[in-house]
Specification:
Blueprint (H helix, E strand, L loop, with lengths): L5 E14 L3 E3 L2 E3 L3 E3 L7 H14 L4 H4 L12 H14 L2 E11 L9 H11 L7 E6 L5 H4 L3 E12 L1
Parallel strand pairs: 5-6
Antiparallel strand pairs: 1-4, 1-7, 2-3, 5-7
Helix pairs in contact: 1-3, 3-4
The chain binds magnesium ion.
């Protein structure tokens, strides 16, 4: 691996929306009648970003690092998961250049929380806010996301050798 070499990684995740869970997205607690089902806190946006980072670094995927049958990771917060993944990636000699993500939800309206999510993600990864970008989509009533049965997220990340 030579200095200045760049790598990109891709991440995607989907969690079902259910009653009785709080909704956390991009590290931010968002008021809603439902939350995302999962062994962790279900923060689908943090999960997609973490997998993009791990993919770019060639360090596997979050399912291997944080197995969903390990009680140690029960309720694991997206911010903490991202922090640990960021530390692994930088510990392996990579510098995070940027992260670009899409979160797709029919409800609630996420745009009022966009800045807080950007800040929370950047902080967890120890990045300047300008290195993180986030788009919000609704899927227009189509598919499970569009019908409000699930929320999903996509992310790409670029790394360079430090
Ligand atoms: Mg997940």
């Amino acid at each position: 691996m030579s200095r200045g070499e760049g790598r990109v990684g891709l991440g995607a995740d989907l969690h079902r929306l259910v009653e009785g869970r709080s909704l956390r997205l991009g590290t931010v607690e968002i008021p809603h009648a439902k939350g995302l089902l999962g062994h962790s806190d279900g923060d689908v946006l943090c999960h997609a970003i973490a997998d993009a980072l791990l993919g770019a670094a060639g360090l596997g995927e979050i399912g291997e690092i944080f197995p969903d049958d390990d009680p140690a990771f029960s309720g694991l917060a997206g911010a903490e998961l991202l922090r640990r993944v960021g530390a692994r990636v930088t510990g392996a000699g990579w510098r995070i250049v940027n992260v670009d993500a899409i979160v797709r939800a029919a409800a609630p309206r996420l745009s009022p929380h966009r800045e807080a999510m950007l800040r929370g993600i950047a902080e967890a990864l120890a990045l300047e806010a300008g290195r993180v970008s986030l788009k919000i989509k609704s899927n227009e009533g189509c598919d499970a996301v569009g019908r409000g049965e699930a929320i999903d997220a996509l992310a790409v990340a670029r790394l360079e050798r430090g």
